[in-house]
């Protein structure tokens, strides 16, 4: 793809307008500067690009197709298309940036990839990339999450990763982040902290976006080939924002293409802690090493957040989304748990595709847009497949959708 790595933002300090940057201890800044320098060599290096392109094609199975969802389209009176990231090896878009990060780490002479994981999706994608590229992999995970996400824990171990239980505090993602960070600081020379979305200090929001921009670059070409036109609307769910930035990035200059990001309204937008609608209800601030919109509690600490989709419950968002919001170039709306679950079943039963609950938020939003009579076609990023979610969905929502308990 032609312009995979060509973007004029962020600036060389990592800012998208006032957002982004790097707010970290000085010793870590030196390491980040090295990562930035290596990455800027990689993005220009034909060999690095060719290796990544080879893996995208022959390992991940790219390009992922675009599918015209005709049954949904007829039912709701708008042409709805799906970019099928669910068909990637490992079942979601995360493998796109994990491979990029693993190749970069290898090139920098690192021995080990480190990350935290909540539901285990980032952990599995990173363990996969580490196995392929030949790096060690330490994944920090809260004990509570380990118990909940058994299949992903088993997968990581089969892939040769070291899953390290985090046993303090609430024993979930927040503590896992702290533990992974501490481990990274203990030896930043031999390890690379592989951030799982377009968040964190510069250069990660830029780098992860660039690795994910394959989605938008493919989609732009495929959609034109299919229809002779550009899509009128793009829709993607936003947790940290990587699948959305990957899709949006190829269309930023096309002002006639409307960009819609979808945040989780969880149980309700009325109560802090019951949603993760960062751009909708948050305010600018600094957390986790970067400046962006974020949700904070009374103490100014990261707010507890919630969504039925564990990949979406993050109290901040990638800085480029904050920039696009303020510019008015992208719009951000919300979908709650029940709407997402309804869309999960709707896509399963009308098109034969079981989506991830995260991606179901984007499907639900596309349906809402169609019902509101939005102009033109809608291209939805189907960021992942729902295999990981089926037991949870049937246990909690099966009855509402005519699935009798099998127990
Ligand atoms: C992790 C995940 C997301 C959310 O992450 P982004 O960085 O916002 O893309 C969305 N969909 C799926 C399937 C995921 O696994």
Q: Can you tell me the CATH architecture of the largest domain?
A: 3-Layer(aba) Sandwich
Q: Which ions, cofactors or small ligands are bound in this entry?
A: pyridoxal-5'-phosphate
How much beta, percentage-wise? 15-25%
Amino- and carboxy-terminal Cα gap: 50 Å
Question: Looking across the biggest beta sheet, what order are the strands in?
Answer: 3-4-14-9-10-13
Question: What is the percent of helical residues?
Answer: 40-55%
Would you list the SSEs in sequence order as H and E?
A: EEHHEHEHEHEHHEHEHEHEHEEHEHHEH
The tally of helices reads: 15
Q: Taking all residues together, what is the mean pLDDT?
A: 95
Structural class: alpha/beta
Key traits:
407 residues, alpha/beta, Rossmann fold, 2 domains, 6-stranded mixed beta sheet, 44% helix, binds pyridoxal-5'-phosphate, EC 4.2.1.20
Give a brief outline of the structure.
This protein is α/β, with parallel strands linked by helices and 407 residues long. It is 44% helix and 17% strand.
């Amino acid at each position: 793809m032609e312009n995979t790595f060509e973007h004029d933002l962020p600036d060389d300090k990592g800012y998208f307008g006032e957002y982004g940057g790097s707010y970290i201890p000085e010793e870590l800044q030196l390491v980040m500067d090295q990562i930035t320098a290596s990455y800027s060599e990689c993005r220009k290096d034909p060999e690095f690009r060719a290796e990544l392109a080879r893996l995208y094609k022959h390992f991940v199975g790219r390009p992922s197709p675009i599918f015209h969802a005709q049954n949904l389209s007829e039912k709701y009176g708008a042409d709805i298309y799906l970019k099928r990231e669910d068909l990637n090896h490992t079942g979601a878009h995360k493998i796109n940036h994990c491979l990029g990060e693993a190749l970069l780490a290898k090139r920098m002479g690192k021995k080990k990839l480190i990350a935290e994981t909540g539901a285990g999706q980032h952990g599995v994608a990173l363990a996969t990339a580490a196995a392929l590229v030949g790096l060690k992999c330490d994944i920090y995970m809260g004990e509570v999450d380990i118990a909940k996400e058994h299949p992903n824990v088993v997968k990581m171990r089969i892939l040769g990763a070291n899953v390290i239980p985090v046993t303090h505090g609430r024993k979930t993602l927040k503590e896992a982040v702290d533990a992974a960070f501490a481990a990274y600081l203990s030896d930043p020379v031999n390890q690379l902290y592989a951030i799982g979305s377009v968040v964190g200090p510069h250069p990660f929001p830029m780098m992860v976006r660039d690795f994910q921009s394959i989605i938008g670059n493919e989609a732009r070409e495929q959609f034109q080939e299919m229809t002779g036109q550009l899509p009128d609307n793009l829709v993607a769910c936003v947790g940290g924002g990587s699948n959305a930035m990957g899709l949006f990035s190829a269309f930023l200059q096309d002002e006639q293409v409307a960009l819609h990001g979808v945040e989780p309204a969880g149980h309700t937008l009325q109560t802090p802690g019951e949603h993760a609608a960062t751009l909708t209800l948050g305010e600018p601030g600094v957390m986790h090493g970067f400046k962006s919109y974020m949700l904070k509690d009374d103490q100014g600490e990261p707010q507890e957040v919630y969504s039925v989709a564990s990949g979406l419950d993050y109290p901040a968002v990638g800085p480029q989304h904050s920039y696009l919001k303020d510019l008015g170039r992208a719009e951000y709306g919300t979908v709650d748990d029940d709407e997402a679950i309804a869309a999960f079943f709707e896509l399963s039963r009308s098109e034969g595709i079981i989506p991830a609950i995260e991606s179901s938020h984007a499907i639900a939003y596309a349906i809402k847009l169609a019902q509101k009579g939005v102009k033109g076609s809608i291209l939805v990023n189907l960021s992942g497949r729902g295999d990981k979610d089926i037991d949870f969905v049937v246990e909690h929502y099966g009855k509402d959708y005519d699935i009798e308990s099998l127990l």
